[in-house]
Amino acid sequence: MKYLILGAGPSGLTLAAKLIEKGIKDIIILEKETESGGLCRSREVDGSPFDIGGGHFLDVRRPAVTEFLFRFMAENEWDRYERDSRIDLKGRIIGSPIEANIWMLDTDTQVKYLKSIAEAGSVSGAPMPDRFTDWIYWKLGNRIAEDYMLPYNKKMFGEELDSLGTYWLEKLPDVSFEDTLRSCLEHKAYARQPGHAEFYYPKRNGYGELWRRIADSLGDRLKTGVAAEKLDIEERSVNDEYKADVIVNTVPWTDFKEIKGASTDLIERIGKLKHSSIVTEYHKERMDTTAHWIYYPDEDKRFHRILVRHNFCPGSKGYWTETNLNRYRESENEHFVNKYAYPLNTIGKNEIMTDILSEMGEHGIIGLGRWGEWQHYNSDVVAERALLLAEKLAG
């Protein structure tokens, strides 16, 4: 075929659907699971939707993306929300991000946090560190680092925390010391809004419903239950069965059992890519909060985040937890293991990916999306990148 797409998550599905819209029909998409959607799949649990990959929402900030996706699931099938995310800080619930909301704490704690931030390296003019753990102290000072950022991120990333770099921190809200001080004086948050400041969520289904509908539109071009195990980069073939002019890979490079024709350096670079795994678990109890999700730095709690689904999925029951696989202890609750949850932004990763994508590109193989590019992209971002790639491929 002309195009072979590996993986039927948001990036692969969007690319295939857009290429077909452009009149290119000689496409096959392979998906190892029996259903499409990747990390954005949904199941029904206890009579209401459960997004098995954790918290995934459709950000409103990319109109070209929403316009395209609404062709498959109309805008009137979605509710629109203003983000309400919070932090459980030693039993006190405050808004997120923490720097913009320490005014919600008692006066003595506010003073301690403000003093700590004022003494931080980012305020004193010290150069920004290369390691994430050092950056936390540099940016926020000792108190917030040790009370929130370090324990939370250790729960989320585990032993890999010290290997993370700082080049990816544009995803985090940038709150200045002046804005933090102003928020304490005026008792209101001052901060650049983080991702999903406003988002869409389906009225009657889980987020996976969108991707299921796109998958259905592909017909027999989508082959589920077919794992891409062997990649021959010189022949541009997969499993010695599927061959294409161009292969677009959206699955983890580390998941191939064999990459034939690759240089030793390429195999070594792929072996250096790191990821984290999470478990999502359903709890039937109803939480008395209006928050959409809550972060938990308390190390006595194994999970790092709760998603309060009845606050963004009307009629739902209970809540979900997200827990790093290494911290999870199996219970009788319904749960799902996501081996590939987050690509880790380890030091040197961008240089590694530049080399991988360059060598693969020489053989007509393109990396796309969270795993093909090994970037912590949200679903709206990978859809945008898929639309741009479709335009490029279609000429």
CATH fold name of the largest domain: FAD/NAD(P)-binding domain
CATH structural class of the largest domain? Alpha Beta
- Approximate strand percentage: 15-25%
Q: Which term fits the overall shape?
A: globular
Number of domains: 2
User: Helix/strand/pairing class, anyone?
Assistant: alpha/beta
Question: If you compute it from the alpha carbons, what radius of gyration comes out, rounded to the nearest whole angstrom?
Answer: 22 Å
- CATH-level-2 architecture of the largest domain: 3-Layer(bba) Sandwich
> How far is the N terminus from the C terminus?
18 Å
Question: What's the helical proportion of residues?
Answer: 25-40%
Question: Using DSSP, what is the number of strands?
Answer: 21
Count of helical segments?
11
Q: Low-confidence stretches at least 5 residues in length (pLDDT < 50)?
A: none
- In spatial order, strands of the major sheet run 8-7-17-18-19-16-20
Q: What about the largest sheet?
A: 7 strands, mixed
Can you tell me the CATH superfamily of the largest domain?
FAD/NAD(P)-binding domain
Estimate the mean pLDDT confidence: 94
